[in-house]
Amino acid sequence: MFSKHDLRLPPRQALILRAPQVHYRQRVTVEGKPGSTMNVRAPVVGTLNVLAVRETCEVWLDNENLHYPPITNERVAAGTYKVTLKCPDGDSESDAVTITSGETETKRFK
Q1: 103 CB-near residues (< 8 Å, 6+ apart)
Q2: Which structural domains are found in the chain, ordered by start?
Q3: Which of 14, 40, 57, 67 could form a disulfide with 87 if both were Cys (CB 3.0 to 4.6 A apart)?
């Protein structure tokens, strides 16, 4: 589902673009002169899988709790993220993952 939004904003106005269904959040500053046009495109999406031996640990994507593994076919806006496995005993493990448009990335925690 695609949407188009037309906004009239003064230059140097900051916006936060969000698409929570694909874990997207970006700050954009309006550039240009009054009356000019600025186009911003929606993010491209890939898929994330997170597998872990310890299924009682929570999986976090940046600062968002994805709940417990396995996480499968999670649609995520393309980009680089920090994936963290947080366990009830206080142990945690993190790694960076890069999501590419139309591709599936699988992160395995041992």
Answers
A1: 46, 47
A2: 45-109 (2.60.40.1120)
A3: 57
| Residue 22 pLDDT | 95
Beta strands in the chain (DSSP E): 14-19, 24-29, 45-52, 58-61, 64-67, 71-77, 79-86, 92-99, 104-109
What is the rounded CA–CA span in Å between residue 4 and residue 103? 25
The two structure tokens encoding residue 70:
């396995």
For residue 37, what pLDDT band results from cuts at 50, 70 and 90? confident
Q: Which residues of 31-68 are buried (b: 16+ CB within 10 A; e: fewer)?
A: eeeeeeeeeeeebebbbbbbebeeeebbbbbeeeebee
Q: What local confidence, expressed as pLDDT, does residue 62 receive?
A: 97
Q: What is the largest CA-CA distance in the chain?
A: 56
Q: Which amino acid is at 23?
A: H
